[in-house]
Automatic annotation (TrEMBL):
InterPro entries noted in UniProt: DUF4062
Name of the featured protein: DUF4062 domain-containing protein
Organism: Craurococcus roseus
Domain DUF4062: 2-83
Region annotation Disordered: where it falls in the sequence: 325-344
Domain of life from the UniProt record: Bacteria
Length: 374
């Protein structure tokens, strides 16, 4: 594999040499700026091409930030931004020496604040760095030792996870369902792990009280195994639910509140409510995936979404609804068969669930709106 080594060059020669030795110890090819042959492209372009052509990136950070490029970022910071979400990043921070420069302190906070996006650790000197790079790369290989990623199969599983239309839902009640399928395809939960009380308890605790909560703590909830999947359900007709399968596939369904006037209900589906539901479902799905696959054997995810029910509801933004709250132009005919939507390409690096969640939700909601109004 090709491993790009990203760091300052001047003043870090010994550390870069240790990184080279750590990568080569496993038979991998280090990709390093000092090895680039003369080429017409600028060093900046050459390094960013090196990042994009690598299988993983080793990031080494010390106290100095480095010279800023035209972007306002250092070369190392640009390389990190290019890799984040597109390539696995294994970061190492020097634990001894001078305090980091202000810009470097901000950079360190960005790297360390990227939840679930990378492996990271400290080091003390070249020899320590070399051994830790070798060990981290080996552990990453083991965690991802599986078959090749099949995008079509991944999307197929994400679509299959979405629930069939529930005839019990009221005709004008809309439910957002969002599914995540992880790949390369492989089991991440044994049957005994699926039925372990701790998993259901942790999942329910997070749904009710965690930072990614999606359930109402004032309502009763239940958990159980059905058709080999773990289910969490809440509310009449299970208006909020989570399902998890043995391959780490997750689907979260959340009923949308209906448009209201002060004196009566209006047949409106508000876009902002759909966005909030999709964002909550994606946030909880990412948490649950980290809970069942902490070593990230599932490196990519396919995401699909669907709105079930809601026949006869008009799609509006809150601004549109506020401008004309007393009347609404209803669709000429209600639909009960809105097909699911997905991004193109459908699969994304798993880290996108953390750093790119807002963009993912925005794009999915746009696709849902286009389909609803078509």
């Amino acid at each position: 594999m090709r491993i790009f080594v990203s760091s300052l060059i001047t003043g870090m020669e010994a550390l870069r040499g240790a990184a080279r030795a750590g990568v080569e110890a496993l038979g991998h090819q280090p990709v390093m700026a000092e090895d680039f042959a003369a080429r017409p492209a600028s060093p900046q372009v050459a390094c960013l091409e090196g990042v994009r052509g690598a299988d993983a990136v080793v990031l080494i950070l010390g106290a100095r930030y480095g010279a800023k490029q035209a972007s306002g970022l250092s070369a190392t910071h640009e390389e990190y931004r290019a890799a984040k979400g597109a390539r696995p990043v294994i970061a190492f921070v020097e634990e001894q020496g001078a305090a980091p420069e202000p810009d470097q302190a901000d950079f360190l906070r960005e790297v360390q604040g990227w939840e679930g996006g990378l492996f990271r650790g400290g080091f003390a000197g070249p020899q320590d760095l070399q051994s830790k790079i070798t060990r981290a790369l080996h552990e990453w290989q083991l965690a991802n030792a599986s078959g090749p990623l099949d995008p079509g199969e991944l999307l197929g599983r994400a679509l299959a996870l979405l629930p069939a239309r529930d005839r019990n839902h009221h005709y004008n009640e809309a439910v957002v369902a969002l599914s995540l399928a992880g790949g390369p395809a492989q089991p991440v939960l044994r049957p005994s792990e699926m039925e372990a009380p701790a998993l259901a308890e942790d999942a329910m605790q997070a749904a009710l009280f965690g930072p990614a909560k999606i359930f109402d703590r004032t309502e009763g909830s239940e958990a159980g195994i059905r058709n080999g999947m773990l289910f969490l359900e809440q509310g009449d007709r299970h208006r909020r639910s989570v399902a998890l399968d043995a391959q780490g596939g997750i689907v979260v369904s959340l009923a949308l509140p209906r448009g209201e006037r002060r004196d009566h209900w209006m047949p409106v589906l508000l876009e902002e409510k759909a966005r909030d539901a999709a964002a909550g479902a994606l946030r909880y799905g990412g948490w649950l995936l980290d809970r069942v696959d902490p070593t990230r054997r599932l490196s990519h995810v396919a995401i699909a979404a669907q709105i079930a029910g809601g026949e006869g509801l008009a799609w509006r933004t809150e601004r549109e609804h506020a401008a004309n709250p007393g009347s609404v132009e209803l669709p000429s005919a209600g639909r009960s068969d809105h097909p699911p939507v997905h991004l193109a390409p459908a699969h994304r690096p798993r880290a996108a669930l953390s750093f790119g969640a807002e963009q993912l939700v925005e794009d999915l909601v746009v696709l849902l709106r286009r389909q609803w109004r078509a």
